[in-house]
Amino acid sequence: MTRPPTLRDVAAASGVAISTASRALTKPGRVNERTATRVREAARQLGYAPSPTGRALSSGRTRMVALLVPDVTNPYFFGIVRGTAARLRADGYVHVLVDAEESVEAEERALRALRPTVDGAVLAASRLDDDRLEAWSHEFPMVTVNRPVPDQSGVLVDTAGGTGQALAHLASLGHRRVAYAGGPRASWSDRRRRAVLRTAAKRLGVEVVFLGPFVPRREDGAAAADAVLHADVTAVLAFDDLLAFGILDRLAERGVDVPGAMSVVGCDDVFGADLVRPGLTTIAAPLERAGHAAADLLLARLDPTHPGGTVTVELPTHLVVRGSTGTAPLRVVT
């Protein structure tokens, strides 16, 4: 055949009606076993595979689930992708990965395009505002990671609590004026960390200088480092490890010793955090567990026997101390 085989071809080859062929492939219990076997054999010989759209028309389900992330190149999301994909694969679902390119508009376009073709979606660190996100949550089954939605299930990774741990670590080393190089303005996680830092700073007797927003990419670390040096601080907490990597690069270019003159802390403990020099002190997050838990919550919602209700899974973080933090210097090198 010069074109992909269709259900009509399978029906003709097995000598049954198209409706019978469809039932034999999707609901085999509704036709006798001899006919079902003949249809399956014809489908195998022709190389026929039911399309997601065809399955959706017959069952109302495509067995496809989307995972939307703000930046598919950011290693923070690798663990979430692995955890989500493994859990969905175990239940026979196809996993569709979508890059929202740190754009609210791109994220909404993707949701509109996906709505007819997927059974549900996991949104990791969504950049949509509260109203848009809540509206989409009523369109189709959805679970969020690090982006709570009223009356919807989700997973929260406590990076904010980890940021408080990191500030306490710096305070114990004698740092009294610390910068926070923040993430995207639309990031819920960033807003939560700023609130935790304000509270922790008062308790610890530390002054926090808030900088940014910065895009969480390594190349944006140069601007963040320059701002940090201008702020007259002895340490910096970066929104994520990529930004921290860029800060380390820029400080090295400018001859600033780390940690002798400036301590640097990242967040997420992504691949490479222990390979940069000095090794990056950072907040370790159980990202693969977060992806697995999010897929678990979504599959529960897709189960017709699910009793309903919402669940929030909270996962703790912890500080990993490496060589990028040290005792506060007597003066700041700029």
TrEMBL record:
GO molecular function, one term: DNA-binding transcription factor activity
Transmembrane regions listed in the UniProt entry: none
Keywords: DNA-binding, Transcription, Transcription regulation
Domain HTH lacI-type, chain residue ranges per copy: 5-59
Top-level taxon of the source organism: Bacteria
Xref: InterPro entries: HTH_LacI (IPR000843), LacI/GalR-like_sensor (IPR046335), Lambda_DNA-bd_dom_sf (IPR010982), Peripla_BP_I (IPR028082)
Name of the protein: LacI family transcriptional regulator
Annotated organism of origin: Cellulomonas terrae
